[in-house]
Amino acid sequence: MSFPVVVLISGSGSNLQALIDQSLQGDLDIDIKAVISNKASAFGLERASKAGIPTHSLDHKQFESREAFDQALMQVIDQYQPKLVVLAGFMRILTEQFTRHYEGRMLNIHPSLLPKYKGLNTHQRALEDGETEHGVSVHFVTSELDGGAVVLQAATDVQADDTADSLAQKVHTLEHIIYPLSVKWFSTGRLTLENGIANLDGQALPTTGMRYHNALT
Asked: What are the Cα distances from residue 30, in Å, to 58, 77, 82, 171, 188?
């Protein structure tokens, strides 16, 4: 029986598409039970519908508080009883109540080599700091913004002619490789969170997670 997953998005859903494609190809034995967005216009909802996946949109602006929105979101998610919640470009800061509810079974992907560049505008910030490499991290979600245990990272060299847009394109390519892999590890029981530390095959991972070496240069 396929592993039940719910995916949260806010935008185009390219990482969602990578998960859909790998599950259709048989590389990833997951069942995406639903895709939920806080924006009804998110293109990722069309991707999900095309794949026959149930969709929901929940406009955060219609709720009086962050807590009220998260409570409603939990109710929608939990009706599908997922074993993993995947944040794929879900642009919301989540409350502690929400993150505690899914602790150890919620993953996010962030476009930097954490712990560097938490938050927004990561590509521009890396360029301004003169970084020679940049990349992407998959991590468990906690109440600390982009602060949960890192699972897997992939890096790319920063070239002299790189812009924020060109870096974003290179990082996107890496995202579509390492996010499905991380989800696969979790769905097959290889990846767990123990006392705030990511473990792979029963071994504690370093604070920056595993490094995916077949990265773009």
From this structure: 24, 16, 10, 24, 10
